[in-house]
# Entry
Amino acid sequence: MRTLALIMSTFLMVAVMAGVALPTAEAQVVPTPTLTVFVFGETVGGKQVFSPSQILIPQVPVHLVVTFHNNDTMQHTFSMNDVNGTRWVNTSYVDPGLNVTVEFTVVSMTQVLLTNGTRFAPEAGANGILFYCIPHRDAGMTGQIVLASVPPAAAEKGILLRAYWIGIIGIGITLVWVGITYFVIKSSSRHFVDHSEHVRKGLP
Ligand SMILES: [Cu+2]
# Structure
């Protein structure tokens, strides 16, 4: 009986250890996703604008492929500066009816990585990373790359991991108590020596 209890508890301990060891194997490298968007340059109600004026990104980092289409009768650009006013992303002047594609990686809301490996700190707008049209910036032709979700991934992961550890610790504590109880009951019971002692005697 004692041997059986030892075998059982050993088996359960091994199962718990295996469960604890699992999460380390789950560590993985997540590749940067690519988001392809179209942005139009046009004149709406006499005003030069980007349409849409916001590029919503679901997360950072994200690789952005922006196809700028000039849907107007005058030239426009899709351009981005760093915090010091140096221009790093630029379609140059796009003629009416034409497309130009630019691509870069938004590493974070304060860092952009170009395809040639250069990193720069992008100029910020009120809600995100600013982009603009060179000849019409002062006329208000600006837009922003906006992070659509404020760190949901980290929060979600935290809750899931916490639930996982609460479960594992709960199972562990339960097993420890089963073990303690077994030995407490065993030590407070004397050994029966023959079958007559096993017969239920009822209340004293
Ligand atoms: Cu313009």
